[in-house]
Amino acid sequence: MTERLADIAAAMVADGKGLLAADESTSTIKKRFDSIKLESTFEARRDYREMLFTAEEAMTKYISGVILFDETIRQSSRNGTPLVDLIRKAGSIPGIKVDAGAKAMAGFPGESITEGLDGLRGRLKEYHDLGARFAKWRAVIDIDTTTGLPSYGALRANVQALARYAALCQENGIVPIVEPEVIMDGPNSTHDIHTCYAVTEKALKFLYEELFIARVDLEGTILKPNMVVPGQKSPVQASPEQVAELTVKLFKATVPVAVPGIAFLSGGQSDELATEHLSLINQIGDLPWKITFSYGRALQAAAIKAWGGKDENWAAGQRAFTHRAKMNWLAGNGKWKAELEKAA
Asked: Does domain 5-343 have CATH number 3.10.20.30?
């Protein structure tokens, strides 16, 4: 029986469950391993991912899908079981990062364009055969109020690439996650929350224009956006309640109701703050989309520290990961703060 993209997308955001972004490139995972003084070898990367994917409570109750890197989707566990099969056994959906990263955009100083469209159709066919049922493509949008970034040209080019990627995914039976990330922690991130709102509004309006032009079926997509937050270097920060209110206001103005779900990126926020914002957004309620998480570092930071690259700490790493996954699942249901107060 043919899998419906809309059904896969709905399962990705069901019941407050969210996505584990385990798609760190080899260079990024090396930085994570450097923090625990562990050499980044093929085996160490496999063991770390296996530790996460076999955390039974987290993977069955709180995680709906896992975004993988090209190396990881081809790896097998210590006993020879493909990591993709471990994910599916837990009831989660395997996914794959398919972009080739943000590169400097010719003619647009200080801005980038995400590459990876060349040969994408063939790669998507292979990834589908390897078990992937959704994919991710990240566009990077920098704000610099001193130079007027982002420019119209860079915004348009990035959302056009997202639309082309999304159409190719759907052609190959894969749900596209579209990720236009307005950066909060760049070198010139002094912008306030209202500037973030205005830039994100423009990016999302352009994105849905391009998806319409590209004939992408919105019911078979997931949006992975930033929250509306001030830049990390802004002299005026915002309360969690203001972040939640403005984020919901923005989505009501820009995101079509046909989109089944919104899975936030953590975008440089601390583990707990990303969870608090998500919970407050869900507490507002009466929203036409499922609102959940697609976190990488915010789910993994405590786990990698607890594990430390040592077999004897395997269970400790899983406990740390499970705790963070549960906290975000509670936030996906708007119950995180109530649970904390109950525990206190």
From this structure: no
Reduced to 3 states (helix: H, G, I; strand: E, B; else coil), residue 191 is coil
Q: What is the 3-state secondary structure (H, E, C) of 10-72?
A: HHHCHHHCEEEEECCCHHHHHHHHHCCCCCCCHHHHHHHHHHHHCCHHHHHHHEEEEEECHHH
The set of catalytic residues is: 179, 224
- Report helix, strand or coil for 310: coil
Q: Can you name the residues that pair with 179 across neighbouring β-strands?
A: 138
Q: Where are the domains of the chain?
A: 5-343
Residue 112 corresponds to which tokens in the numbers above?
């980038």
Identity of residue 169: C
β-sheet bridge partners, residue 97: 136
**Alpha-carbon torsion (44, 48, 53, 57), positive or negative:** positive
Q: Are 46 and 77 in contact (CB under 8 A)?
A: yes
Per-residue pLDDT of the chain (344 residues; tens, 9 = 90+): 568 999 999 999 999 999 999 999 999 999 999 999 999 999 999 999 999 999 999 999 999 999 999 999 999 999 999 999 999 999 999 999 999 999 999 999 999 999 999 999 999 999 999 999 999 999 999 999 889 999 999 999 999 999 999 999 999 999 999 999 999 887 888 999 999 999 999 999 999 999 999 999 999 999 999 999 999 999 999 999 999 999 999 999 999 999 999 999 988 788 889 999 999 999 998 899 999 999 998 899 999 999 999 999 999 999 999 999 999 999 999 999 877 767 65
Q: State the sign of the Cα–Cα–Cα–Cα dihedral 159, 162, 168, 170.
A: negative
Give me the residue label for tokens 């906290």.
327
Residue carrying structure tokens 């837990």: 90
Residues linked to residue 294 through DSSP beta bridges, in sequence order: 19
What lies within 8 Å, CB to CB, of 1 at 6+ separation is: none
